[in-house]
Amino acid sequence: MIKVWITLFSLTLVIAIGAVRGLQFLNHPPSLAETHKVIEIAEGATYNSVSELLEREGLITSRIYFRLLGAWTGNEKNIKPGEYGLHTAMRPMELLDLLVRGKILHYQVVIPEGSTARQIAKLLEAAKLTEAEVFMKVVEDPTLMSEFGIEGESLEGYLFPDTYQFPKRTPPHEIVRRMVTQFQAAYDESLRRRADQLRMTQREVVTLASIIEKETGHPSERGLISAVFHNRLKKKMRLQSDPTVIFALTEFDGNIRKRDLGIPSPYNTYRFIGLPPGPISNPGRESLSAALYPADVDYLYFVSKNDGTHSFSKNLREHNRAVNKYQRKKA
């Protein structure tokens, strides 16, 4: 009988000690100091392997108690894969809650207005979200273009410039879909109605907007730049836009040379009348609007004043005077 009581007492003591340690495990983080760790839980990882990883990284004090916690809460199969930002001052329940809710890390990427698809690809590669060449292949994927009803050789022009948040390992197709979806939201019904009034296709609007975006970074000039191009198109004049030539060049060192103006590319608006075959950059909402709402002026020319703005002229004589004033003096 005494042996039975000793056994029961021992079991009770073990259980009590286990309960106390369990409460300590739940209520006390590994450290009061926040040592931040980034961990990645692979697709298909087991709860046990996650417990071992957390203990190894010093984020929990006991993988055994963390396993018991998972069983007690019924979350052994509910942990989401992905990359997490955790720290050593987190209690186990708080940590488990993040893993179950899938609060994975997101990486911010800022796409400036007027960026080309190639420039966007490099930004995403720098953020370690995808390889630039892989992204470019997706941008040129005819299946994806067909999904959005977009014609042409690529989705250049439809990768809307904005600030994005993407988790690690986001498929490139999903990144592109997100950007094109943002474009569709920006190119809303009011712009579509205006395009119909002007008898412009969506592609023509985006192409013109992409040139406007590249020609000026000054918001007050967008409508004036748009007016120059609209007026030239009506008069069957060449647009003679430097950014279209730059887009056509395979290499550009920052200077346009006379020989560049003669390249046979259909994007060279010094050689060919009308808009180029497609967009040369990815324009923002303001440039899309400017393409559809040109200023009510009869300008046909503009030249840089070397301060971020331009001088506008109605005829070639005025334009030549402006060139002499702002450009030849500079040379």
Automatic annotation (TrEMBL):
<keyword id="KW-1003">Cell membrane</keyword>
<dbReference type="GO" id="GO:0005886">
    <property type="term" value="C:plasma membrane"/>
</dbReference>
<keyword id="KW-0961">Cell wall biogenesis/degradation</keyword>
<dbReference type="GO" id="GO:0008932">
    <property type="term" value="F:lytic endotransglycosylase activity"/>
</dbReference>
<dbReference type="Pfam" id="PF02618">
    <property type="entry name" value="YceG"/>
</dbReference>
<comment type="function">
    <text>Functions as a peptidoglycan terminase that cleaves nascent peptidoglycan strands endolytically to terminate their elongation.</text>
</comment>
<keyword id="KW-0812">Transmembrane</keyword>
<dbReference type="GO" id="GO:0071555">
    <property type="term" value="P:cell wall organization"/>
</dbReference>
<dbReference type="GO" id="GO:0009252">
    <property type="term" value="P:peptidoglycan biosynthetic process"/>
</dbReference>
<keyword id="KW-1133">Transmembrane helix</keyword>
<comment type="similarity">
    <text>Belongs to the transglycosylase MltG family.</text>
</comment>
<protein>
    <recommendedName>
        <fullName>Endolytic murein transglycosylase</fullName>
        <ecNumber>4.2.2.29</ecNumber>
    </recommendedName>
</protein>
<keyword id="KW-0456">Lyase</keyword>
<dbReference type="InterPro" id="IPR003770">
    <property type="entry name" value="MLTG-like"/>
</dbReference>
<keyword id="KW-0472">Membrane</keyword>
<feature type="site" description="Important for catalytic activity">
    <location>
        <position position="215"/>
    </location>
</feature>
